[in-house]
Amino acid sequence: MSRTTGHDVNLIGLSGSLRAASTNTTLLRALQSEAPQGCALALYDRLGALPIFNPDDEGERLPPEAARLNEAVSRADGVVISCPEYAHGIPGGLKNALDWLVSGPAAVGKPVMLIHASHRSQVSRDALREVLRTMSFNVFPGPELEVPLLGKKPAEFAEILGDPSCRQRLRATLADFVRFIAKR
Questions:
Q1: For the chain, how long is the longest CA-to-CA vector?
Q2: pLDDT tens digits, residue range 43-52?
Q3: H/E run at residue 160
């Protein structure tokens, strides 16, 4: 396990949304605040800065932001993805980020967990799981965390995510993922 941040388990969180008031990013931040002792969840917030994937740019000379993403995923013990569904698919920004990881070793065997800010994302969830398995990520088989934030106002997020039962679900899901990572 990584020791670069002084934590036993270092996770990287990817939000599939670029929105400033993203429910998916908000959910990742809430999960970050509930991380168990010895676990750190850092958010990668540069999806919008990644160039459009071009296989000609792969290899040893990745564009700088793609190299930063690859390094962040490589250093992490696991990845947490919170992703919306756009037109029954994976949002382009997240798919682009995954494409930058596809040819290198960063994803191979890397534990990944999906969390959701909406109950209306089953098509993209299935597609995302298929992409992640194809890339050789080790997809967490446990129950996926779902906190229905879609359609709520940002002021309501704090009430929902601050509810003790929700906070307990966040902690329990993350603890289950950390145990999954430790078993590999």
A1: 49
A2: 999 999 999 9
A3: helix 154-162
Evaluate whether 127 touches 90 at the Cβ level (below 8 Å): yes
Residues in the chain: 184
Question: Do the Cβ atoms of 1 and 8 come closer than 8 Å?
Answer: yes
Tokens representing 148 are 């229905």
Calpha distance 59→38 (Å, rounded): 34
1-8 own/partner pairs: CB under 8 Å, 24+ apart: 1/77, 1/181, 1/182, 2/75, 2/76, 2/77, 4/75, 5/40, 5/42, 7/38, 7/39, 7/40, 8/38, 8/39
User: Tokens standing for 10?
Assistant: 């270092």
Q: Is 168 helix (H, G, I), strand (E, B) or coil?
A: helix
Helix (H) or strand (E) holding 68: helix 64-75
Q: What token pair was written down for 105?
A: 């070793």
pLDDT at 82: 96
